[in-house]
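WP5 quarterly update. Target: Helix-turn-helix domain-containing protein. Source organism: Microbacterium limosum. Length: 492 aa.
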Amino acid sequence: MSSTRRGVILRDLLLAHDSAGLTAHHVPSSAQSVREIVLITHVDQILEVGPDSIVLLGEELALGGWVVSVALRYAWERRAAALVVSEQSFSESVIELARRFGVALFTAAVGIDRTALALARQLGALEAGILFRLDALHNRVVRATTIAEVLSEISQELNDAHVQVLVEGIELVSRGERPNDAVTVRSVLADGRRGPELVATVSPSQQAFAEQALARAGMTVRALLLAHELTDLVDAAPLLSFAALAGVREDSAVDDGHPDQAALQRWPPGTPVAAVVLRVVDDVDHRADRIAPVVTSRWREAFPRVPLARMSAGWFAIVPLAHPSAEVDGALQQLADAGLGPLGTALGVAQDPEGTEQVSNLLRRAGLAARLAEAGGPVIDFRRFGLPLVRRLLPAQDAMDLAQTAYPLLMRDPHAADIIATVVAYLDCAGSATAAAERLGVHRNTLQLRLRRAAALGVHLDHPGELLSTHLLLAALDPGSVPTSPSPPIDR
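Structure tokens (predicted):
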């Protein structure tokens, strides 16, 4: 006789069962699931026992310790949870065998048939309660409109356990806290080893229910993921249309497009915008495709009303400069630091404050800036293209060695940092002392004093043939490694 069920925890079943007629000789410490109650009346039937079952030996079978020992071994091989036999005395070796096999061992004082019926009845009652909880959870989950809401419902049902959606091992959304001494339950939401996963970290006593809860919620989470992908695609349709008109293909880099529509002067018309390019550094094994759900989710959090369009090894977007996320530069840098940098994504931006630039040109500039940017590093703005380029061509250590050789007096001066910053600002401003002073926030006379000090230390700005090399070298220096002093006598 057997009664197949969805499964409950053995300890829960024992607590619910009127266990006055059961004597426990060994109960494993781990949480074991019970899905079936099986009464064995013939020896051969034990070979048909399924996993997670409680096996009860008919009274005519369990006539001695050696029969119980054999039954324990078969129960272990069939991955049964427990063995119940009629009341009798055991030697310590039989109980030790149960410990070694990890199979719970009980004796029944009220008769095996009656015990089997009672356990099956209680298993059904417990499962009915679990089904009621699962149905109630399912009804709440299907009404959720976001993945975060789904995870919150699951977490609450699992005593605030930690529940998350992973994509490529990267956390997309999570809720709850990890309990101590926890086990991990996983439900794959799509075919393939790299598909998204719904993962719960729960206490061992919650494992069986968590498996069923994740299975119930998996379809809803998958549907919401697909809905997000569809929404992103619909939102990005205008950008994709623009990209097609401007010659920016999905399989190309943004800096090799050739616009074929002269009428495309700006988009949207007359609106100050910034072109943003997100480039996956070292896009091996189609990494951009695999992390796309995470990237679009992070982008949606930072710019909920700005679509993101897919392109080769990355994405691009057109962000209005009047976007409610305040300063675009700050929002992009926060996005890079908190969400995209750790994924190996670098950001480049090109701004058009007047709204007069052709957007395809902005995209190419942003693409070049993104190629200079480093994953996890600062967002590179095309307006400040020079310094990243110089530092890429001339690493800081090489620049320091060259500067110490070319300008030894300057590099030994305690105020070298101030002097170098002044020279670089002066050259950045094309020799305008007024503009350089405003940039540095110092008086024009102070700037002139520092320039004269630079000349005294060997930095000559009246030799046109040396200006370019001087500018590139000093701009490439790491300010943190240049001597500085809290008291600047050169400003007096």
